[in-house]
């Protein structure tokens, strides 16, 4: 067999191993090691794996992963999410479907200080859904809004998926964060427009009964008190990062320290909780770094086999062209999103797709934004839909059906597809800030 044949078989074997339940990191290491052994020999395979372990994890940059994860977890336990929702609820409760819009904007702000979609889904399913239900919104709409807007956690920086993409694509994490600002705002606006259209044209989808419950009256001073911690963290992390005062790792450290101070001042953090958060941070970090190690080995195996080169020639020398490749790439990612999680999709697909995108002359920063949005659609699509199942688990309501949440999320999937098309047609939405 030729190296190309071995590489192609390795990809098929990896997909099969994942489908039967093998952890993706172990599957990647096993298939990559075996494929390199067949292409060269066992000695080269062992040496390549040890070299990858050293090269892929020695970077100072990787300290950003546990710092942003810890910041997100501290923000979650400190009650900042509820305060964010309360502020936007007060500001937007007079407009049609105001609680839905408030949920979107609260999620957008929460995303700017956490970067984890699942954290957003967990927090707002417990805060926003009961409040919307109390005001006469349907279960389907309330959970759909939370599921849809939770994806902002991976688009608006800081974002864990942006970090993973930057590492795999060998791009600047800071530039990837900057590239996510415009598309993140556009996506939040698209969700808002979707809610207003639904509230106007399909009121039965949004409202179950009259909006009779009284809104909690929050005074101006209380709004300021609730908003100060949120704004402080945003200024500390995003201001330091975009102002050039801090690199991504330093911004993560500053954000984690700021979130720790807020949690301590609010007395929402005892020793046991803090230890649990540290352990959880370590578990998430080790998982992400192990997956990056495995993906790096997989990428080098593919380069050795020549699969990316052959695919680039196939897409770029015929009638398909760069945008034909881009369309096939998006369809593949959305399809995979129905089966496996976001990071796994990126780790499998990017080592194959990045060389093709680079050969096609596509801007890799722009390509990264498209990748993240496409991957995030998978959080809402059945049968996997991780955000949907997270909401179902967090709500702990036996009468709430998973299918109802999926149906509620459909309008937001459409909004994401429209946003994706706009960014493809107008790349500067993603690239202008990153080029400054």
UniProtKB/TrEMBL annotation:
Q: Which domain of life is it from?
A: Bacteria
* Lipid bilayer topology: Multi-pass membrane protein
Q: Where in the cell is it found?
A: Cell inner membrane
InterPro entries per UniProt: DctM (IPR010656), TRAP_DctM (IPR004681)
What sections of the protein cross the membrane? 6-39, 60-81, 101-129, 141-165, 177-199, 220-245, 251-269, 281-303, 323-352, 364-389, 409-434
Q: Which UniProt keywords apply?
A: Cell inner membrane, Cell membrane, Membrane, Transmembrane, Transmembrane helix, Transport
**Is Protein biosynthesis a UniProt keyword of this protein?**
no
Q: Which Pfam families match?
A: DctM
The main location is: membrane
Taking the record's annotation, the residue ranges forming a coiled coil are: none
Ranges for domain TRAP C4-dicarboxylate transport system permease DctM subunit: 12-428
**Keyword Membrane tagged:** yes
Oligomer status and interactors: The complex comprises the extracytoplasmic solute receptor protein and the two transmembrane proteins.
Give the family, as the similarity comment puts it.
Belongs to the TRAP transporter large permease family.
Question: What is its biological role?
Answer: Part of the tripartite ATP-independent periplasmic (TRAP) transport system.
Q: What is this protein called?
A: TRAP transporter large permease protein
- Biological source species: Sulfitobacter sediminis
């Amino acid at each position: 067999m030729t190296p190309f044949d071995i590489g192609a078989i390795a990809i098929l074997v990896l997909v099969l191993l994942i489908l039967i339940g093998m952890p993706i990191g172990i599957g990647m290491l096993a298939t990559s090691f075996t494929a390199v052994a067949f292409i060269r020999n066992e000695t080269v395979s062992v040496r390549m794996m040890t070299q990858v372990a050293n090269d892929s994890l020695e970077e100072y940059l990787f300290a950003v992963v546990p710092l942003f994860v810890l910041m997100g977890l501290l923000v979650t336990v400190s009650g900042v999410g509820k305060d964010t929702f309360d502020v936007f609820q007060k500001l937007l409760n007079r407009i049609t479907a105001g609680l839905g819009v408030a949920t979107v904007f609260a999620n957008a702000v929460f995303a700017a200080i956490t970067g984890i979609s699942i954290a957003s889904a967990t927090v707002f399913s417990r805060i926003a859904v009961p409040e919307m239900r109390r005001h006469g919104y349907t279960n389907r709409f309330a959970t759909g809004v939370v599921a849809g807007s939770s994806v902002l956690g991976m688009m608006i920086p800081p974002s864990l998926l942006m970090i993973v993409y930057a590492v795999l694509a060998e791009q600047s994490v800071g530039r990837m964060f900057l590239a996510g600002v415009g598309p993140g705002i556009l996506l939040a606006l698209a969700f808002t427009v979707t809610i207003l259209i639904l509230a106007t044209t399909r009121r039965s989808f949004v409202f179950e009964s009259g909006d009779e419950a009284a809104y909690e009256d929050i005074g101006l001073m209380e709004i300021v008190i609730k908003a100060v911690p949120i704004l402080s963290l945003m200024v500390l992390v995003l201001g330091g990062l975009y102002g050039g005062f801090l690199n991504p790792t330093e911004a993560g450290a500053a954000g984690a320290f700021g979130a720790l101070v807020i949690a301590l001042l609010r007395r929402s953090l005892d020793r046991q909780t803090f230890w649990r958060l540290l352990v959880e941070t370590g578990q998430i970090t080790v998982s992400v770094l192990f997956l990056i190690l495995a993906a790096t080995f997989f990428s080098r195996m593919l380069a050795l086999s020549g699969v990316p080169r052959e695919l680039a020639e196939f897409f770029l020398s015929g009638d398909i062209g760069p945008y034909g490749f881009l369309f096939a790439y998006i369809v593949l990612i959305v399809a995979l999103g129905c089966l496996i999680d976001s990071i796994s999709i990126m780790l499998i697909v990017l080592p194959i797709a990045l060389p093709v995108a680079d050969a096609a002359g596509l801007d890799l920063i722009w390509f990264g934004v498209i990748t993240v949005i496409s991957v995030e659609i998978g959080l809402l699509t059945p049968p996997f839909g991780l955000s949907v199942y997270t909401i179902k688990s967090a709500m702990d309501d036996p009468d709430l059906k998973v299918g109802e949440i999926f149906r509620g999320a459909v309008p937001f999937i459409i909004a994401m597809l429209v946003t994706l098309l706009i960014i493809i047609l107008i790349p500067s939405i993603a690239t202008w800030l990153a080029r400054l």
